[in-house]
Structures are given as structure tokens and as C-alpha cells.
Amino acid sequence: MTEIRWHSRAGQGAVSGAKGLGDVVATTGKEVQAFALYGSAKRGAALRAYNRIDDEQIFNHAKFMNPDYVLVIDPALAYTDNIVENEADHTQYIITTHLSKEELIEGIPSLKGKEDRVYTVDCVQISLDTIGRSVPNAPMLGAFVKISGMFELDYFLENMRRVLSKFPQKIIDGNMAAITRAYNEVK
Amino acid sequence: MAEKYDLQEREVWDGNFAASQALRQAQVDVVAAYPITPSTPIVENYGSYVANGYIDGEFVMVESEHAAMSGCVGASAAGGRVSTATSSQGFALMTEVLYQASGMRLPIVLNVVNRALASPLNVRGDHADMYLGRDSGWIQLDAFNAQEAYDLALCAFRIGEHHDVRLPVMVHQDGFITSHTAQNVYPLPDEVAYNFVGDFKPVDDMLDFSRPVTYGAQTEEDWHFEHKARQHKALMDSRPIIDGVFADFEKVSGRKYNRVESYDMEDAEVAIVALGTTVETARVAAKELRAEEGIKAGVVAIRCFRPFPFDMVRDSLENVKSVAVLDRSSPGGAMGAFFNEVSAALYTTPNRPLVTNFIYGLGGRDFSISEAKRIFKEQKAHADAGHITTDIQQFSGLRGPHLGFFQTKRG
Amino acid sequence: MQDLNLLANDNRGQTDLGNSSSLVGWDEVTQGTILQSFEGDATGIAQKKAEERSYSNFNSYTATVASWRVKKPVFNIDVCIDCQNCWVWCPDSSILSRDKQMLGIDYDHCKGCEVCVEVCPTNPKSLLMFSEYTPLDEALSQWPEKKKKEEK
């Protein structure tokens, strides 16, 4: 079982990101779960989304998890939200930031000593450049594909194209570019 | 003819989307709805299917949930296949008309996305609304995940519309935990789903001008009791028909449903009895406890909450030593209603297992595998002691000092 | 003088409303308390006259409330101007009228409320209340004269 926790603000697309990831993962024959905790949350409010991925049907419906991956798609939440909550000793962090990894960890004491499990990528800037507005979910998927090694990039892009098929071509192209760039830039 | 919907063999749907797809495949004629979180997408999607030509139906916008169910009553009495969805406060406002629908024997399918009742205001899942409907004369089916929300909605039309049943059916799913959780769902092809549900064959439809009928007659003490007795009998008699529909559904889907589901119960010593998503989480806990500590744990789940499967509950639990019944609704000054019903069934068994009651998960409070394990272990302690060693009713997952009530006299 | 079974078919008012002899057990009551208005195929029933319709036993047409009355309205065709006021106001649809011609009273369904008399505009009134046991011919023979304006 692979468990993923997204830290996001309402409107940044963590829920769509989690569902899009689930959609692609399901095409590989795996069982997925994608859910989020929100409700009355207004745009900008902190929220968390979750994925579970397994070979068998997933019966656990608890929100509680010891995540294998923590994906932070808002730069400020890395500081203000408890992103290490219920972490395991192998939990890997992918955090969107314009800072270097060293600068980032310097400001977040809970990440100290976990340098080899922390990855950074500037999802906000990438989405501004490729999609034209701040929707950091797509670049985060590209970074996740790279770090997890779960898919070949081309396979993932091909399936995301299908997931996004109801959108205009320009949006699809922007998302493909965003995923590809983040895949190459995450470090 | 309706437009063809592009459907994959394997979809990733949340419970709301899954339920709305069942409404599309059943080609529901009328949905009268007043949307409310977390059930909104069900009726919203139906509206878009109508607008985009996937359904030849009618979406009726109304001014309240009371009006929504009233519209459904009217459309169903007129002779259409009718469905809607609601949650929580909306369900509460519908309650008066729920009794009208069942009393008039109208086979409306209501998708209830379970959510807590205010006050305090809360949009997350618990079973307060589900319990509010338990005396309303509706058949109540309970889905534990998105796949089941889809499957049971299809079954609901078949059950309710069966001419020997003619009763409205609720299909419950847990707010957010099911309704907003996307997971693998394996839908039936449109033709298979529609053929399973079948054409709607109306009874006593008001638009049959060759046979005008009166709906909503007044009966006082000279008639009312007989009519309610007949209605209760119809609910009780629906049990074998529900079994038959589940059997037919297995033939087309490969997925088997039972009015009471039992997991790891063959040799179980301790059991959790639950509703909704908790069932599946508890199943994981039972499996792990068996492997980790050798505790013979099992789970019994109520698929069909009404008519209550008194005899099947008894059969599935009579050889267990200690049972925890989990109520996800504020009991309002009593033992949990579900606890009372399971206890009553177990009271008529020779061994009379120990039964305790947990109030948990109110307002969407998380229910984890570790909490399920703790509850199993407590049951094991009761079983070993031969009597209940804790308060009979306890709160699970609550902050603050221990809260519990009543002790056993059997120890 | 009015025929007491004016425009009636065989089963109009055949049972007393609330007559307990028609009570049946739970296994015989109708599903959903849904009551069929007519026997057999009722296609085109709206175009049929009341006395031609096959009203079912569930239809209030077949029940009578005549015994509820203390006083009854009597209709005097010689004074009536067919204004249909009584037909409009009668709460029990007990004014029998055909082609806008007032014909008389449905005594099976009239409860004696006197509304028809109240709204009748003629002078003297074309509908007046008499005790239930006064024969119709005797009632008509007692009809008052036209009142002069100054006597009002």
C-alpha cells in the first residue's frame, strides 16, 4: 500500500490532482482511493487530500495514515501546516518553493535531518509559465512521477491527456508542459 | 433516444458520481431536487445528463427539500420512475413527506449521503439522518464504498418497483468518506444495467385516465391501523424479494450482496457490528488482529437497515462471545438505536453474547484501524472475563475524560 | 316538483357514510390507501353524465349524508332565473344543473347548510329551507309572495 498526503489551499487543485493521479494509477490495474477533507472551506483555506494505492481492493476508509509521500503544493503551507504529522521514517517530501532545499529546510526545523527525503520544485512558477495561472497540481504530479518512479513519464503524460480530454487543447498542452518541466526540474 | 455515454470498464469515481451514473443508466424520468452538501453532485450530474441528452428525463428545481420530496411523490404517483438525493438538514425537512411516500407505496429511490444533523452545524458524515428515517416505512440499503453506492442504487429501483413490494428505497452512503472519495468502480454496460433494472411498470398511476384514482385519502381510527399494518407487512415481505434482486445482480455483475454481511465470522469469538465505511475499516482491523495477536475477530455489517434483518443478525452473531455495536449517531439520552436492535435480536439466542455499545464518529470524526483494534481487544477482555468489564455504552474517539453509562448485572 | 332521484344512477347514495358494516381487515385494504374512483374502464368518463358513470364504492357519490340534515333546501323552478349562483357556492356539489338550467337538489349529498338559499338573488328566493319532514308539494304551496321594495 502506498499512501500519499497532499497539503494545499482550496483552489490550487489538490483534490483534482489526487483524483487525476488516482485515475492514471487505476489504468495500470491497481486499486486507488482519492479523497479530501474539506466542505465549507473557502478558496485559500488550508486543506488536505489523500491517495491510497494498492494491488488489492482498499478497505481502509480512515483519514489517518503514515504517508509514504507528502506533497506540498503551496509554498507557505510548508511553514504553517504540520507537514510531518504522522510521518514514517521513510516518508518522502516534495515541496513547492522558489528556495533551494537548504534554504527551505533552514526555515522548517521539523525537516532537519531528513535532507535525503526532501525534494523541491517550484510548482507555482512552472504553472505560471506553462498554464498561465497558479495551478500547482499538475507540476506536482510531474515531480511525483519522477521521485516515486511509479511510471515512465511518457506513459503518465499519455494517460493524463485522456483524463483531461474534456478541456480545451490549450489547457491540455499547458498541463503536459507543466508535468514535463517539473519532472525534469525536481531535485 | 438518449445519447451514448462514454463508459470505461474501470472508472475512478466517487460515491456521488457513481450514484448519479446509476440514475442515468436506470433512465430516471423525474428528479425533483434541492441540492445540499455532500449529496449535491448526484442531482447536479443528473441535471447535466438531461441537459446533454443522456437521459430523456425532467429535472425539477424546487424551493426546499420538503418540496423536492413532494415533487417526487407527485411524479411517482403520476407514473414515472423517480429519484432524488439529500443529506442531513435536507433529509430532516423531507421527513414529513417520506412518510407520505411510503404510505402511498410509491417506489421512489432516495440517495442519502449521510451527514450529521445540526446544531452545531457540520457538513461531514455521521448517521443521524439515516436514523431519522428508520421509522419512515422506507427500505434502507447501506453502501460501504462508491462501488456499492452505484450497485445498490441499481438494485433499489428493482426492489422498490417490484409489484409485490411497491415501497420507496433509500440508498445510504457516508458523506465525504464515500461520497467524495474516488476509487475504482466497475460499472455495468448501459444495456446490462438497464435490462437489470427493467422498464418501469407503474401501478395506480394517476395519468392513467382509463382508471382514475385517489391518492392521499384520510383514514381515522377505523381504517388507519389496518393500512399501517399492511404497509409494515409489505416491508417485512420485501425481505425475500431483496434477496432475489441481490441474487440477480450477482448474475450480471459478479458482486454478491446480502442483507447482513459477515466477514471472518466462521470461527469469530469477538465481533464488531457496524454500518457504512466503518465496516470496511473494521474488516482490515479484524484481519490484522488475527495475524498479529491471534484474536478471532470478525465483522457483521447491516446491508439492509430496514426491514431490519432480526433473524439474520441473530444467526450471524449467536456463537460469538462478545459483540460491540457501533452507533454513528448521537443517541439523545438512550442506548444507541442500533445497539438496541442488535441486542434485542441476540436476547432470543441460547447463548446471549455480551453486547456493548460505542458511540463514535459523530460529525465525521475519523475512525481508524487502531481504534477498531482497541474495541476488538476490549471485547476479547469481556469474553475472557465472562462478563462486560467496562461501561455498556462508551464514547469512542472522544476528547476529554472517559464518557460511559450503565454497567452489567451479569458479572 | 322535483324527483328525489333526479339525475341519479342506481348506486348514488346507496350507503350511509361511516357505515361500519363495510370495514375489512388489514389484509383486504387497498395498497397505499389508493382508491379507484370508477369500476371498469373509465376512458372518456369526463364526457359522460353523472347518471351514466360507473362510480365505485370508494367514490363519495355512492355514499349518502342525507341523515345529517335537519333542514332541507327546496327548489322552486317558477322563480329561478338560472343564474347558477347556488351551483357555484354549494360546498357539496349538490345543486343539479344541466346546460345551465337549474334542475334541483341532490338530496343524497346535501347537508342542509343553507348556503344556496343565502346566495339566491331572486325575489322571492327560489330556494328556501323547510324542515326535513315537510313534503315537497306542501313546501311549494307555502312559497312567499314577491316582496315590494318599500317593505325591505
Structural overview:
The complex is a heterotrimer of chains A (187), B (411) and C (152). In chain A, 39% of the residues lie in helices and 20% in strands. Chain A is of the alpha/beta class and 187 residues long. Chain A has one domain (2-185): Pyruvate-ferredoxin Oxidoreductase, domain 3. A 6-stranded mixed β-sheet of chain A has the order 2-3-1-4-5-6, covered by helices on one side. In chain A, helix 1 crosses helix 6 (153-163). The model of chain A has no long low-confidence stretch (mean pLDDT 94). The longest helix of chain B has 30 residues, at 224-253. Chain B folds into 2 domains: 11-253, Rossmann fold (3-Layer(aba) Sandwich), CATH 3.40.50; 260-405, Rossmann fold (3-Layer(aba) Sandwich). With 411 residues, chain B is an alpha/beta fold. Chain B has 12 helices and 17 strands. By secondary structure, chain C is an alpha+beta fold. Chain C has a single domain (15-143), classed as 2-Layer Sandwich (Alpha-Beta Plaits), CATH 3.30.70.20. Chain C has 3 helices and 7 strands, in the order E-E-E-E-H-E-E-H-E-H. Chain C has helices spanning 85-89, 115-119, 136-141, and strands at 15-16, 35-36, 63-64, 71-75, 95-98, 101-105, 127-131. In chain C, the strands form 3 sheets. A two-stranded parallel sheet of chain C has the order 1-3. The longest helix of chain C is centred in the last third of the chain and has 6 residues, at 136-141. Chain C is elongated, with a radius of gyration of 18 Å. In chain C, 24% of the residues are buried. The mean pLDDT of chain C is 92. Chains in contact: A-B, B-C.
Topology record:
The complex is a heterotrimer of chains A (187), B (411) and C (152).
Chain A: E1 2-9, H1 14-27, E2 31-37, E3 46-54, E4 69-72, H2 77-80, E5 92-96, H3 101-107, E6 118-121, H4 123-130, H5 137-148, H6 153-163, H7 169-185
Parallel strand pairs in A: 1-4, 4-5, 5-6
Antiparallel strand pairs in A: 1-3, 2-3
Helix pairs in contact in A: 1-5, 1-6, 4-5, 4-7, 5-7, 6-7
Chain B: E1 11-13, H1 15-25, E2 30-33, H2 40-51, E3 58-61, H3 65-78, E4 83-86, H4 88-103, E5 109-114, H5 128-132, E6 139-142, H6 146-161, E7 169-174, E8 182-185, H7 190-197, E9 213-214, H8 224-253, E10 260-263, E11 270-274, H9 277-293, E12 297-302, E13 304-306, H10 310-317, E14 322-327, H11 337-347, E15 354-360, H12 369-385, E16 393-396, E17 404-405
Parallel strand pairs in B: 2-3, 4-5, 5-7, 6-7, 11-12, 11-14, 14-15, 15-16
Antiparallel strand pairs in B: 1-8, 6-13, 10-12, 16-17
Helix pairs in contact in B: 1-2, 1-6, 3-4, 6-8, 9-12, 10-11
Chain C: E1 15-16, E2 35-36, E3 63-64, E4 71-75, H1 85-89, E5 95-98, E6 101-105, H2 115-119, E7 127-131, H3 136-141
Parallel strand pairs in C: 1-3
Antiparallel strand pairs in C: 4-7, 5-6
